[in-house]
Design goal:
Layout: E1 2-3, E2 6-10, H1 14-17, H2 23-28, E3 35-39, E4 51-53, H3 65-76, E5 82-87, H4 109-123, E6 131-133, E7 154-160, E8 163-169, E9 177-182, E10 190-196
Helix pairs in contact: 3-4
């Protein structure tokens, strides 16, 4: 990714883990100077910073809304720097030992809150040309945005002569279509046809 023709370099708490990093010296060794995007509110004031991005805040009790509002407020104070907007699921749970969170029920409230905060910031007059989807698709840490939600549908099939029939148990309006497969060896499948919902043979 580039910003104004310069490669963008982000970091994940490098300054927190390694506070003695000499960013000026590191940058001086490069023939092409990148755009540096740091993290959180403090990222706007880091040496050589060109902006900052926000991240998941699983230790808050308000789905990260106060953190996000504070981050956008910090970005407003630095109009020449990039404020990288985010969309994420934030948890009201706490980190467990080992850095994992407990799973929680997914709903749209936290995503909608993220969108609302971002929209409010834009309306205050600072465009946000970049949006980061903060997820590492880790189901144990529950950061995935597009979850596979079990529709609790089961199928029971039977074959008689040359006829395949199936019965659906559950709500068919959660099914897009059926795909019929055949196997000549009981191990490998080959798709035969797609069948619309409402048909069971």
């Amino acid at each position: 990714m580039t910003i104004n023709g310069q490669p963008m370099v982000t970091n994940f708490n490098v300054s927190l883990s390694y506070p003695s990093v000499d960013w000026t010296a590191a940058n001086a060794t490069l023939s092409t100077h990148p755009t540096y995007i740091f993290q959180n509110n403090s990222g706007f004031t880091n040496i050589l910073t060109d902006g900052s991005y926000s991240w998941v805040m699983p230790t808050t009790t308000d789905y990260g809304m106060s953190y996000l509002a504070s981050f956008y407020d910090a970005g407003m104070a630095y109009p020449s720097e990039q404020t990288v907007a985010r969309l994420t699921k934030d948890s009201t749970t706490r980190w467990r030992p080992g850095g994992r969170t407990a799973l929680w029920d997914s709903n749209a409230a936290d995503l909608a809150g993220n969108i609302f905060q971002t929209q409010q910031h834009v309306q205050r007059g600072k465009p946000l040309p970049y949006l980061q989807l903060v997820t590492w698709n880790d189901y144990e840490e529950a950061t995935e945005i597009e979850s596979g939600i079990d529709n609790c549908v089961t199928l029971t099939g039977s074959v008689a002569a040359n006829s395949l029939q199936w019965t659906l148990n559950g709500n068919e309006n959660t099914v897009d279509h059926y795909t019929v497969y055949i196997s000549s060896d009981g191990q490998n499948l080959m798709p035969l046809t797609d069948v619309a919902t409402g048909i069971s043979r």
